[in-house]
């Protein structure tokens, strides 16, 4: 009885607290928002109680469906985290909804929902939120399974915040990506990392393959990472590994003298005009979860980050994304060519972006249906959140985003 009473009290406390973003002050307001909400009403008290009961009893949040979606939208209740403070001058995003985008017909080759209009697709398939920005203006925005002010987990998309941080330091001459990682960490000499250039780590071709189980617990991450072995020569084969993003995060912290969250806050989040503060997961060893669960942000703020790569976002005297960085993303390692299993096109990995297309567009996806697609040449950003259903089916907005980019709807005059 005492355990049940304690559990009930815990849930009541959770229900009594508002989500962190709602506690922000001086948030810019939208007098008459033009986004689609589809009458979303949030979780019931019974659903919230059931989720926390499941976790209290030792259950795992990775159950897919609404149970997992609750975790995605309530990260601060479950995971230890740091806070990345919002900008003092949020960037206002003009809303100019376009019916031709809303009614765009998706490809019939999708596993589910093919042939639907974009608006119908996000309602009927596993999409939590979708935003499309063209020439700096919102042309479509919908929230079928979340609130616009919700912080939603981005997971592996956080890795491109890592590579952007590396690029910022590179632009300042503080990092040379042609140099090997052991040039910056003496403890890595004699390990599998020795001689591996940063540019190969940035393209996820370090040749290091190892689970992060011990790293998550270690209180000396570099010493732990020094025990790894190389399984293939670097720069010869794309091999997804969270450990590549992990070691680059440690490099950002060493060179900048700041925690990763503080660096992102000062050099990225405040400069993109983020409207809400973000959350960043912390390991049991106190280090940053920049390569797994990662950051939690609003959808609009994720899109604001994407805008930093486009002409509309770079139209100022001190853009976050330099010409050199854009060129470096496109200057791909030809050895890492592969065919996308989603679009059947040739793609490359560069600066931790999961797909760099031959036309210069690039994309990063994440577990459960999160994604950020950027087309600098079309001044286009597509960002979305989702949660796989209990059959482990996710949305295919990665395919639709590519289809939209090539549709002609966003070609610049």
Automatic annotation (TrEMBL):
<protein>
    <submittedName>
        <fullName>Serine hydrolase</fullName>
    </submittedName>
</protein>
<dbReference type="InterPro" id="IPR001466">
    <property type="entry name" value="Beta-lactam-related"/>
</dbReference>
<feature type="domain" description="Beta-lactamase-related">
    <location>
        <begin position="130"/>
        <end position="394"/>
    </location>
</feature>
<dbReference type="GO" id="GO:0016787">
    <property type="term" value="F:hydrolase activity"/>
</dbReference>
<dbReference type="Pfam" id="PF00144">
    <property type="entry name" value="Beta-lactamase"/>
</dbReference>
<keyword id="KW-0378">Hydrolase</keyword>
<dbReference type="InterPro" id="IPR012338">
    <property type="entry name" value="Beta-lactam/transpept-like"/>
</dbReference>
<dbReference type="InterPro" id="IPR050789">
    <property type="entry name" value="Diverse_Enzym_Activities"/>
</dbReference>
């Amino acid at each position: 009885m005492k355990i049940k009473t304690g559990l009930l009290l815990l849930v009541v406390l959770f229900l009594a607290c508002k989500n962190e973003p709602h506690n922000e002050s001086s948030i810019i307001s939208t007098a008459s928002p033009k986004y689609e909400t589809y009458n979303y009403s949030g979780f019931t008290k019974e659903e919230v109680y059931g989720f926390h009961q499941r976790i209290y009893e030792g259950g795992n949040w990775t159950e897919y469906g609404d149970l997992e979606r609750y975790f995605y939208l309530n990260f601060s209740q479950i995971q230890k985290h740091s806070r990345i403070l919002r900008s003092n001058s949020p960037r206002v995003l003009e809303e100019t909804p376009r019916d031709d985008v809303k009614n765009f017909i998706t490809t019939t080759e999708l596993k589910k929902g093919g042939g639907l209009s974009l608006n119908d697709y996000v309602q009927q398939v596993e999409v939590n939120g979708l935003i499309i920005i063209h020439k700096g203006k919102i042309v479509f925005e919908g929230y079928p399974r979340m609130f616009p002010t919700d912080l939603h987990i981005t997971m592996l998309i956080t890795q491109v915040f890592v590579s952007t941080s590396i690029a910022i330091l590179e632009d300042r001459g503080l990092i040379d990506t042609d140099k090997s990682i052991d040039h910056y960490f003496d403890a890595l000499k004699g390990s599998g990392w020795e001689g591996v250039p940063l540019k190969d780590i940035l393209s996820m071709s370090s040749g290091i393959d190892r689970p992060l189980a011990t790293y998550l617990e270690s209180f000396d991450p570099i010493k732990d990472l020094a025990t790894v072995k190389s399984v293939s020569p670097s720069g010869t084969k794309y091999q997804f590994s969270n450990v590549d993003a992990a070691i680059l995060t440690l490099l950002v912290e060493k060179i900048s003298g700041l925690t990763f969250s503080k660096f992102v806050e000062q050099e990225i989040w405040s400069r993109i005009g983020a409207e809400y503060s973000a959350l960043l997961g912390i390991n049991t060893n106190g280090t940053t979860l920049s390569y797994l669960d990662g950051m939690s942000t609003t959808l609009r703020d994720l899109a604001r980050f994407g805008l930093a790569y486009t002409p509309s976002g770079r139209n100022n005297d001190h853009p976050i994304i330099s010409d050199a960085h854009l060129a470096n993303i496109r200057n791909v390692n030809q050895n890492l060519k592969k065919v996308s299993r989603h679009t059947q096109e040739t793609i490359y990995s560069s600066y931790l972006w999961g797909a760099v297309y031959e036309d210069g567009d690039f994309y990063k996806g994440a577990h459960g249906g999160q994604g950020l697609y950027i087309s600098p040449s079309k001044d286009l950003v597509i960002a979305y959140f989702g949660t796989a259903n209990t059959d482990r089916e996710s949305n295919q907005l990665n395919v639709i985003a590519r289809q939209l980019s090539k549709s002609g709807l966003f070609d610049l005059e």
